[in-house]
Amino acid sequence: MKLLHSGKVRDVYSVENEGGGDDLLLVTSDRLSIYDVVLPTTVPDKGALLTALSLWWFERTTDLVPNHVVSATDVPEEFAGRAIRCRKLDMLPVECIARGYLTGLGLKEYEKQGTVSGIALPPGLVEGSKLPEPIFTPTTKAPVGEHDEFMTFDEVVDSVGAATAERLRDLTLAVYARGTELAAPAGIIVADTKLEFGLDGAGGIVLGDEVLTSDSSRYWPADQWEPGRPQFSFDKQYVRDWSSTLDWDRTPPGPEVPADVVAATRARYVEVYERLTGTTWGS
């Protein structure tokens, strides 16, 4: 087993498979990242929760797009529960984001220009507004410590070609639609989500990384949704909101997170997992 890359939250290893080739081992840590900065404080069980939720969603989107999962059980014992054995992919240089509601960096971009990723939106929208229809708002993939930047669709075309760009847009919106469909009965709004895709050996587009987790998505309780104010979030938005009260410029090093903020964040990860999957965490 060889460490290939240590990211903001995940570590990637190369592991031999039965055919004599190599698979990737995607290990999700308990690290916490906001604004592309890794914080010095971890959240207990976060890696296992994200892995379990991602696997749950991978199973429910296979009819839309193939994914990179080989096995969640054929992994080293020390990583059990928070690792996935995956196919190697040639990852595409685009963060694929679908937004159904206006919040976060999308809101800030809208307030400045009336657009997000070059897409014009109606005037008068506020924080938490539901968009007329979900939109594809891709960004660049920034290295650790740097910030992703919005891309227009034309810039995605320049990066990966027209046919691939159109397919990425269509798949991103399809996975987001599936997410909103399955989350609704649990009383959960999927405000937005970020996906990553790669190419397999035959040039086919494959869903990689994670899917519809609490790190890659904003989840809101539907019964508390109220446009015009920050929303209660079942994700790390709670930590983002806490950090906004600090004198911190969102550059490394990040601040230590207090124990009560860690506990509240963990509780939100657990609750959204249980509500979506119908499974009690740890059972």
Tally of DSSP helical segments? 6
Overall SS class: alpha+beta
**How many E-type strands?**
15
* Average pLDDT rating: 93
Short description:
With 283 residues, the protein is α+β, with helices and mostly antiparallel strands. 28% of the residues lie in helices and 25% in strands.
How are the SSEs ordered, and which strands pair?
Elements: E1 2-6, E2 10-16, E3 22-28, E4 33-34, E5 37-38, H1 46-59, E6 69-71, E7 83-86, E8 90-91, E9 96-101, H2 104-113, E10 115-116, E11 119-120, E12 130-136, H3 153-160, H4 162-183, E13 188-199, E14 205-208, E15 217-221, H5 237-243, H6 259-277
Antiparallel strand pairs: 1-2, 2-3, 3-7, 4-5, 6-7, 8-13, 9-12, 9-13, 10-11, 13-14, 13-15
Describe this structure in words.
This protein has 283 residues and is of the alpha+beta class. The chain has 6 helices and 15 strands. Strands 8, 9, 12, 13, 14 and 15 form a 6-stranded antiparallel beta sheet that branches. A 5-stranded antiparallel beta sheet has the order 1-2-3-7-6. Helix 1 packs parallel to helix 6 and helix 3 packs across helix 4. The longest helix is centred in the middle third of the chain and has 22 residues.
